[in-house]
């Protein structure tokens, strides 16, 4: 029987073999395909990749951040999670309030110039420390915008006011499990057209499905950074499915990941090849605190991964 991780590894190989070379928003360039689907049976282990280390605690803190409805990176920084730093930092260094060294095109320059990389890291560290220590600065510069995932999940803005989509979908699963309307939508085009998102959501909607006492989830992701982003997305939505199944008294079924533009950045190709050269190891298992009954009450210590023994980390630059 093929290891479940090949659902992801086959995607990597497919894009290397068939991807279209394209320009992109970041100026990095990608190999891209349009339309791809992966399926993970959540009863065959928790889909946290083993061919490279995926930092599970970062996955957990990010998901709890979304569930809280938070859009400010202060919560993430309090949990030593820096995966969203670059976007508010970019907004800050492009503002008139910033008076430090020139940070133009910092993502690319930091990969090509070691001296600049040191300056960039120092400036970003100062920025993050101010977010943690200065309430007013955090309020002004720590947000990734009202169109971010947490806001869309918990307070989606429409013509009739605000909707807590996540809370509503959980109640629907409990009261009407056979409904075909168990959706949460993160794509609010009206907000994007008015510039309210530093990065419009890549995971645009997800839908739940109940059958035979099991909860499954399908994510549609308009844009997927295959090497850095997609491994997080797989484990994050698998975890969300487990949390909601736990609250609703269901077992878990499948996580189905449907991608629109699935791409490998050109400066990630060697890293992907390294990952493909490795053999997958046994998947870990997830342990949730049985005393916590609601998705909204989980904390970091209530969520544990057991038996995770991956290959080493493979580092790669993020495209901003």
Report on this structure.
Residues 7-320 form the Thymidylate synthase/dCMP hydroxymethylase domain. Pfam families: Thymidylat_synt (PF00303). The chain is globular. With 320 residues, the chain is of the alpha+beta class. The mean pLDDT is 94. It starts with 5 loop residues before the first helix and ends in a 14-residue tail after the last strand. The protein has a domain at 6-71 and 162-306: Thymidylate synthase/dCMP hydroxymethylase domain (Thymidylate Synthase, Chain A, 2-Layer Sandwich), CATH 3.30.572.10. A 6-stranded mixed β-sheet has the order 1-2-8-7-6-5. It has 12 helices and 10 strands.
Break the fold down into its secondary structure elements and pairings:
Layout: H1 6-18, E1 20-22, E2 30-41, H2 56-68, H3 74-78, H4 86-93, H5 106-112, H6 114-133, H7 135-141, H8 149-154, E3 156-158, E4 161-163, H9 165-175, E5 183-185, H10 189-193, E6 203-211, E7 214-225, H11 229-248, E8 251-265, H12 269-276, E9 285-288, E10 303-306
Parallel strand pairs: 7-8
Antiparallel strand pairs: 1-2, 2-8, 3-4, 5-6, 6-7, 9-10
The CATH C-level name of the domain at 6-71 and 162-306 is Alpha Beta
The largest beta-sheet arranges its strands as 1-2-8-7-6-5
Percent of sequence in beta strands: 15-25%
> Are there runs of 5+ residues with pLDDT below 50, and where?
none
Shape: globular
Top keywords for this entry?
Thymidylate_synthase; Thymidylate synthase; two-stranded antiparallel ribbon; 320 residues; Thymidate_synth/dCMP_Mease_dom; alpha+beta; Thymidylate Synthase, Chain A; six-stranded mixed sheet; 21% strand; single chain
């Amino acid at each position: 029987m093929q290891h479940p991780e090949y659902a992801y590894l086959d995607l990597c190989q497919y894009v290397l073999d068939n991807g279209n070379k394209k320009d992109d928003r970041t100026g990095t360039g990608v190999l891209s395909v349009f339309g791809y689907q992966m399926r993970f049976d959540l009863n065959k282990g928790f889909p946290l990749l083993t061919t490279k280390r995926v930092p599970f605690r970062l996955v957990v803190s990010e998901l709890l951040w979304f569930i809280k409805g938070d859009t400010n990176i202060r919560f993430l920084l309090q949990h030593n999670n820096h995966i969203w730093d670059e976007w508010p930092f970019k907004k800050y260094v492009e503002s008139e309030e910033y008076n430090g060294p020139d940070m133009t095109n910092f993502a690319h320059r930091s990969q090509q110039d070691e001296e600049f990389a040191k300056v960039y890291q120092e400036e970003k560290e100062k920025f993050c420390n101010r977010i943690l220590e200065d309430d007013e600065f955090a309020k002004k510069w720590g947000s990734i915008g009202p169109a971010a995932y947490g806001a869309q999940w918990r307070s989606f803005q429409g013509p009739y006011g605000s909707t807590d989509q996540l809370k509503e979908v959980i109640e629907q699963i409990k009261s009407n499990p056979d409904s075909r309307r168990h959706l949460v939508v993160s794509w609010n085009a009206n907000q994007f057209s008015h510039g309210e998102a530093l990065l419009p959501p890549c995971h645009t909607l997800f839908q739940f499905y109940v059958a035979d006492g099991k909860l499954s989830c399908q994510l549609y992701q308009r844009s997927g950074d295959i090497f850095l982003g997609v491994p997080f997305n797989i484990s994050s939505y698998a975890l969300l499915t487990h949390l909601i199944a736990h609250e609703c008294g269901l077992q878990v079924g499948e996580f189905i990941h449907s991608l629109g533009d699935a791409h490998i950045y050109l400066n990630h190709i060697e890293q992907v090849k390294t990952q493909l050269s490795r053999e997958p190891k046994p998947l870990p298992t997830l342990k949730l605190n049985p005393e916590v009954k609601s998705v909204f009450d989980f904390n970091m210590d209530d969520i544990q991964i057991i038996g995770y023994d991956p290959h080493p980390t493979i580092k790669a630059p993020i495209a901003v």
